[in-house]
Amino acid sequence: MSDDGFINLTRDISATQIPSGAVVALPTGTGVLVTQALGGSYTVHVASQAGLFRIAAGDADALGLEVVAKAVEEGPFDAEKVWAQLRECYDPEIPVNIVDLGLIYSVDCPEDESGKGRRVNVKMTLTAPGCGMGPALARDAEQRILTVPGVAAANVEVVWDPPWSPVLISPAGKAQLGME
Fold first, then answer.
1. Same structural domain for residues 19 and 105?
2. Which residue has the higher pLDDT, 48 or 83?
3. Inter-residue contact 10 to 31 (CB < 8 Å)
4. Is 36 helix (H, G, I), strand (E, B) or coil?
5. Taking the model in full, what pTM does it have?
6. Which domain holds residue 119?
7. What contacts 138, CB < 8 A, 6 or more positions away?
8. Into how many domains does the chain fold?
């Protein structure tokens, strides 16, 4: 780490540009400043490019950090485990998880047609219709949901009705944002 807090990447990685959601290559030696490390991913400012980028947990080693492997859960399906995984998803610009931000409108868990578990269907929204992170947040949520025992498939749909409002933020989220 340099005196100004920037870290030089130790290998080439792919990162998600915020807010466009475009995947870009960041080469070895790129200087980055970690601005947020929540839910296992890292939001970074890149010295040589405008904007912020999200780096996946599996690329923590490129930042000189330890890659923490999550234990594979076992056991029967439990909808609370789905909610726990959704609480691990963070908007890269806001340090509150998507559940406490009030972005999750519904979680439905019927048996999957394959007979091999549950199909988890989530309806979520974003804080603003112009936010380009919708596909990246939905993909992150789907990948996390698929780690829950008994889940055969996951689908996260971004919806706009009803529109999001700050009144949907949970008390815990409001506390994190200093809104109380």
1. no
2. 83
3. no
4. strand
5. 0.80
6. 79-176
7. 124, 156, 157, 158
8. 2
